[in-house]
Amino acid sequence: MPPSRQIILVVEDEAVIAETIVYALQTEGFTPVWKTTGREALAVLAKEPVAFVVLDVGLPDMSGFDLCRELRKRHAVPVIFLTARSGEVDKVVGLELGADDYLAKPFSPRELTARIRAVLRRSNGPTAPAAAPAGWTHDAAKCRISFRGKTLDLTRNEYRLLGALLAAPGRVFSREQLMTAAWDDPGASLDRTVDAHIKTLRAKLRTAGPDADPIVTHRGLGYALREDT
Predict the structure, then answer these.
(1) Which of 18, 167, 197, 221 could pair with 12 in a Cys bridge, judged by C-beta atoms 3.0 to 4.6 Å apart?
(2) Which residues of 121-139 are buried (b: 16+ CB within 10 A; e: fewer)?
């Protein structure tokens, strides 16, 4: 889909900031839709083919983190957080919720549009091979992974992490390699963020196979997928 047809949902209650973002997106050929509350944003997502969400953490009706939790239940759309807080705790929370990037205010509109394009290029680029070991099904075209016949409800980053492991069963991936595979800006992520995502992946895998533990921890090295799951 050409950029001129891509809808970017901007959820920001500060008019001056939102108008700057909208102008920058229009200049880059996107179609911005600006909303000021979480409820309005969810309504847009329910009826429009949104390609990307620019989400402020501080909204009048709910936090951006809560909104991200809600939209992740139904949508795999990429998300970048905007916040006046740049602390490590906030960054970890945002990334663990499935955000693709994180930008602290004040920021350059040019940097924001560049990050959006980078995420969209990755989202529309090649995915992991569809072939998967026994017990697994990986539909790369639909970004869908099943384990023991059950489709897993994965966030974008969980899908990318698991897809990387599925592409090479038995191979030990370092946290750095998994961050590179799952995040568009690996430098913005933290080792413990990968650990947190692996923890949630294991919990979701247990719902499909309570007796299975397909992800192996190699202490001091990283993670691997069992070859005989």
Answers:
(1) 18
(2) eebeeebbeeebeebbebe
Sign of CA dihedral 105, 185, 56, 61: negative
**What whole-number distance in Å separates Cα of residue 38 and Cα of residue 33?**
13
Q: Strand 50-56's sheet: what is its strand order?
A: 31-35, 7-11, 50-56, 79-83, 101-104
pLDDT tens across 45-90, in order?
989 889 999 999 889 999 888 898 888 877 878 899 888 765 555 6
Residue found by looking up tokens 């990986």 in the block: 138
Q: What is the DSSP letter of 172?
A: P
The model's pLDDT over 167-192, given as tens digits with 9 standing for 90+, comes to 888 888 888 888 877 876 655 556 68
Per the structure block, which two tokens stand in for 32? 């911005």
